[in-house]
Design a protein that fits this description.
Length: 154
């Protein structure tokens, strides 16, 4: 299948590089793997991974995901029904809840982390110099102000 975003052969090098990158990235659909293997979307996977660091309040979960607290509550309700998280009263304020991972939730979070961070096959075929160049290029691109994902893009 031909990529609809392929630029004309005489396009600017930046446009050609972007098109090649776009084709590669869209071929590495991690969302599909999350759904197929874990029945999770990327947002829920991120929430579980965040909870591996420490239990969080609902407000902290909403802030980390850059979503409205009601949306975080709906997501945590779903994860709780699946047995991946549990809510407990906050030790200092019984009106607040702290969300903890269950053992199953920790296993699923680690599987999600593997799916999201495992290098695609093509990366493993590059030599050390090419990998260093890719890392250097993307570090530079990620340091630009317009490359950071916005809360609206989640």
């Amino acid at each position: 299948m031909e990529d609809a975003l392929n630029p004309e052969p005489n396009s600017a090098p930046a446009a050609q590089a972007w098109a090649a990158l776009h084709t590669f990235i869209t071929g590495q659909d991690r969302r599909r793997a999350l759904r197929r293997e874990l029945d999770l979307g990327p947002g829920n996977a991120e929430q579980l991974i965040n909870l591996t660091r420490a239990p969080m309040t609902m407000r902290e979960i909403a802030g980390a995901a850059a979503v409205d607290p009601s949306a975080a509550t709906v997501a945590i309700d779903r994860l709780e029904r699946r047995g991946l998280v549990r809510r407990e009263s906050h030790p200092d304020d019984k009106r607040r809840k702290v969300v903890h991972l269950t053992d199953l939730g920790r296993q699923i979070a680690e599987a999600a982390r593997r799916i999201l961070t495992e290098a695609p096959r093509g990366f493993n075929e590059l030599d050390a110099d090419d990998l260093a160049a890719v890392a250097r290029i993307f570090t530079a691109l990620n340091s630009t102000t317009d490359s950071a994902p916005s809360a609206e893009g989640r």
